[in-house]
Amino acid sequence: MDPMTEVAFQIILFAGNGKSSAMEAIHEAKEGNFEEADKKLKEAGDELGKAHQHQTTLLQNEARGEQQQLNIILVHSQDHLMTAMTVRDLATEIVEIYRTR
Questions:
Q1: Residue 45's closest CA among 92, 13, 77?
Q2: Which segments of the chain does DSSP mark as H helices, in order?
Q3: In this structure, what DSSP letter does residue 31 have?
Q4: Sequence-ordered list of residues with C-beta below 8 angstroms from that of 83, at least 6 positions apart, any chain
Q5: Which of these, 20, 61, 93, 99, could form a disulfide with 66 (CB 3.0-4.6 Å)?
Q6: Other beta carbons less than 10 A from residue 8's beta carbon
Q7: Distance CA 75, CA 7 (A)
Q8: pLDDT tens figures, 49-74
Q9: Residues assigned a catalytic role
Q10: Quick one: pLDDT at residue 68?
Q11: What 3-state class would DSSP assign to 68?
């Protein structure tokens, strides 16, 4: 497997983990478990941070002039990451809505 595809799979893995944790945070908040919801939001942030680090590596390599073949798996990984980040941001807001009800 080429290095670009390996990095793409890492981004997909960590983005998926982050999205799942964000969704779990919403479910915990819905049940009134705000300490657990906050923990899940932190987990989501940590996982998305890992995905972002892999993305940053690709960007740095490109900036250094290391041209790499773009593939659909990388495009898919970017879609996963951006969606997961949006879910995390919305989950943060939804948890706060439940907290103030």
A1: 92
A2: 3-30, 34-63, 72-99
A3: T
A4: 15, 19
A5: 61
A6: 25
A7: 12
A8: 999 999 999 899 889 998 888 899 99
A9: 76
A10: 81
A11: coil
For residue 78, the number of C-alpha atoms closer than 13 Å in the C-beta half-sphere is 10
- The packing angle between helices 34-63 and 3-30, to 10°, is 160
Two structure tokens written together for 37: 């919801």
pLDDT in tens, the chain (101 residues): 888 899 999 999 999 999 999 999 999 999 999 999 999 999 999 999 999 999 999 899 889 998 888 899 999 999 999 999 999 999 999 999 999 98
The three-state secondary structure class of 38 is helix
Neighbours of 93 (CB within 10 A): 10
14: Cβ contacts below 8 Å, ≥ 6 apart: 47, 48, 50, 51, 54
pTM of the model: 0.92
Please identify which residue in the block is written with the tokens 């890992």: 50
Instruction: Give dist(CA 9, CA 75) in Å, integer.
Output: 11
